[in-house]
Predict the 3D structure of the following.
Amino acid sequence: MDRDPQAHWLETETALHYARAAVRVGLWASERVLIDRYLPKSARLLELGCGGGRVVLGLRQAGYHEVTATDFSPVMVSLARAVLADHDEDWEHCVEQQDATALTYPEASFDHAIFAFNGLMCLPSRGHRLAALRSIRRVLRPGGIFLFTASDREKGANAAYWAKEAREADIIPGDRWHESDTSPVFIHSSTENETREELSETGFEVLECPLSSEVAPDGPVVREFAGETRFYVARKS
């Protein structure tokens, strides 16, 4: 039986795992560096795939008050709202249910956007990733920055698996179901060239794409939570 790539994100136990991470893990040191470098506090920000509220909570605690956090999963949205309500009395209902591949906001609604912790790579196909990139680009203002991470097939946390694993001819390179603390989760691990091509195809210019360890040394909690991943900083061209 074929697995449903969305099922993992609709489970209460998965949402609880990410809600705990919102408080226990917080923003990574590497995330903070790039956020400070590219995203002014006065900007109107869109977060995709907010999960349990880890990034939106960290942003608001860092002084970003114009943040709209979104997730397609109603369970994630509910728990992210609960996390913010517990830790930010002025959160003002800034978490909304949206599908990243078909955002309903008007064109050029946001200055910049974030899709944290390999969220783009959890979409079930290249077609879905391209749809999300086009949708995100549409709601960004001219010159808007899109900051995200992608599991890197050559240098990321699962590089050893991809280096030794013999793949069947009908399996797309990089596609894999991973075990998790709750249920299996689909993640695509890309190469830098592959993701650069997808960004170029959808109208983005890559400004930089360092590995997380090249940006800043993340602490042991973050390393356990996320491992090595690659950041992409892209601009709407």
User: Anything to note?
Assistant: The chain has one domain: 7-236.
